[in-house]
Amino acid sequence: MSFVFKSIAHIQLAAPKGSEDKAKRFFGDILGFREIEKPELLKKRGGVWFEFAHYQIHIGIEEPFTPAKKAHPAFEVENIEDLKSHLSKNNIKFIIDGDLPGANRIYINDPFGNRVEILEWL
Questions:
Q1: CA distances (Å), 78 to each of 18, 81, 104, 122, in order?
Q2: DSSP 8-state code for residue 98
Q3: In the chain, N or C terminus with fewer CB closer than 10 Å?
Q4: What pLDDT sits at residue 122?
C-alpha cells in the first residue's frame, strides 16, 4: 500500500442543541481539556472543540440526539486515583472495571450520556 495512517486527528462526540456550556464545564473545567477556536465556517453549526497534548475532542451538535452508550473514546491518564478523587469531588459518577488485564480502568458519562473510558496502565 502507498498510504500510511499517521495519527488520530480528532475524536467527535455528539451532544444536543444548546449544550455548549455544559460541554465547557465538563470537558474544560472538570477534565481539564483546553478549549480551542473552531474555524469560522464551522461555528454556525454549534458545538465546541477541545484539545490536550496533540489530540482534539470535538463536541458536535446532533439533532435528534442519541448518546453513544457502547461506542466510546478511551483516554490514558497518569494518576487515575487522583482523577477518581477529583471526579467524586465534582459529583461525577464512575464505574470501576477490572476486566482489562494490566489496567486500572473506569467509565464515566459526559453530561449528555456518552460513554467515556479512562485508564491507567499498571
A1: 32, 9, 10, 10
A2: -
A3: N
A4: 95
In 10-71, alpha helices (H):
20-23, 40-43
Which set of grid coordinates corresponds to residue 91?
459529583
Helices (H), the chain: 20-23, 40-43, 80-89
For the chain, strand residue ranges (E) read: 11-15, 34-36, 48-52, 55-61, 74-76, 95-97, 103-109, 115-121
Alpha-carbon distance 83 to 81, whole Å? 5
- Look-up: residue for cell 498510504? 3
Q: Say how many residues make up the chain.
A: 122
Give the tens place of pLDDT for each residue, 90-109.
999 999 999 999 999 999 99
